[in-house]
Amino acid sequence: MSVLVVGTVAFDAIETPFGKTDKIVGGAATYICLSSSFFTNKLNLVSVVGEDFPNDAIQILKDKSVDTEGLQIKKGEKTFFWSGKYHNDMNTRDTLDTQLNVLENFDPIVPEKFQESEFLMLGNLMPSVQKKVLDQMKKRPKLVVLDTMNFWMDLFMDDLKEALKEVDVLTINDEEARQLSGEYSLVKAAKVILAMGPKYLIIKKGEHGALLFNNKEVFFAPALPLEEVFDPTGAGDSFAGGFIGYLAKTNDISFENMKRAVINGSAMASFCVEKFGTQKLTEINQDDVDARINEFVNLVQFDITLK
Ligand code: AMP
Q1: Is residue 125 within 8 Å of 8, Cβ to Cβ?
Q2: Where are the beta strands (DSSP E) in 19-158?
Q3: Does 149 contact ligand 1 (Cβ within 6 A)?
Q4: At a CB cut-off of 8 Å and minimum separation 6, what does 304 contact?
Q5: CA dist., res. 22 & res. 238, Å (int)
Q6: Looking at residue 89, what is its pLDDT?
Q7: What is the dotted CATH code of the domain comprising 3-300?
Q8: pTM of this prediction?
Q9: Which residue's alpha carbon is nearest to atom 1 within ligand 1?
Q10: Of all atoms in ligand 1, which is nearest to the CA of residue 93?
Q11: Pocket flag, ligand 1, residue 10 (CB < 6 Å)
């Protein structure tokens, strides 16, 4: 099944306790596409970059079978730039700088041939742009997943709530779930958020795993305990890419299959954090992904006899 991905394609500058990068290629849609490419070769990208964005970075996406017809390249303008610094726990970070640049006036155009994509991943971006992409679909996709962050909640909470009315799955982290719901308890937060529109909610808790909620059930997936965590940037997007990629590959959106999708997403996120930026995602192969998913299976498997 095809997946339409919208989100930022960006330059990032990252600082973690293990090092610092100058401008490197990042962006929510970049991580999503790289991660999803392990599950489907029908990936359609809608995004925007400036004239300063390197062609070879676009070529890396093309080599992963990403159709970049919907990637606008704006002459004389600069690519979106984000810079962040992680705290010692690597689970929390401060945004040091966000320069919207080309995003400021971004009007997404979904090419005709993308308008019937079966799965839609509304990656992190202005909520109004996410909504505009959904509105251009010829028929409603089988599943619409939306990812967002505190930055957009601070600026455009009303637009975000409008978009949420129309999505099936929302993925956010624990702090964002608290901000969106006004509830500290994540169980209470999930109830409030599910009443806003989404049928499913995924709350990402960094190294503490992820929770999948619907109105009746909850599922927990751990994060893999890793020896080396260099840079958590993009972990949430890699998770989203693995999640929607697996659902598209299996063409099954039942809650049971979403549990497997959450494990696949967690596996992709676990690779992402092992090196700076997108590097690790470009180095791994299908055997690495399969082996990692097995590690997840072994991590949570146990026998118990109840008397
Ligand atoms: P994550 O670590 O999964 O939250 O994603 C980090 C990526 O999101 C980086 O590559 C950034 O370029 C991108 N990013 C940071 N801030 C924003 C924002 N406000 N909107 C969209 N993408 C962003």
Answers
A1: yes
A2: 19-20, 24-26, 43-50, 66-74, 81-86, 93-99, 119-122, 143-147
A3: yes
A4: none
A5: 21
A6: 85
A7: 3.40.1190.20
A8: 0.97
A9: 234
A10: 2
A11: yes
277 lines ligand 1 (CB under 6 A): no
Q: Which among 141, 105, 98 is positioned nearest to 5, based on CA atoms? A: 141
Residue nearest to atom 11 of ligand 1 (CA): 27
Q: Which residue ranges make up each domain of the chain?
A: 3-300
Is the shortest distance between the CB of 125 and ligand 1 below 6 Å? Answer: yes
pLDDT (tens digit per residue) in 288-301: 999 999 999 999 89
> Which amino acid makes up residue 91?
N
- Per-residue confidence (pLDDT) for residue 92, from 0 to 100: 86
Q: Is 26 in the pocket of ligand 1 (CB under 6 A)?
A: yes
The residue whose two tokens read 């401008």 is 23
Ligand 1 centroid–CA 252 distance in Å is 28
Cα(127) to centroid(ligand 1), Å? 14
C-alpha angle 68/243/178, rounded to 5°? 110
Which residue is listed with tokens 């929770």? 211
Per-residue pLDDT of the chain (307 residues; tens, 9 = 90+): 999 999 999 999 999 998 899 999 999 999 999 999 999 999 999 999 999 999 999 999 999 999 999 999 999 999 999 999 999 888 889 999 999 999 999 999 999 999 999 999 999 999 999 999 999 999 999 999 999 999 999 999 999 999 999 999 999 999 999 999 999 999 999 999 999 999 999 999 998 999 999 999 999 999 999 988 899 999 999 999 999 999 999 999 999 999 999 999 999 999 999 999 999 999 999 999 999 999 999 998 989 998 8
With a 6 Å cutoff on the Cβ, whether 219 touches ligand 1 is no
Mutate to test the pocket of ligand 1, among 5, 121, 233, 280 (most ligand atoms within 8 A of CB): 233
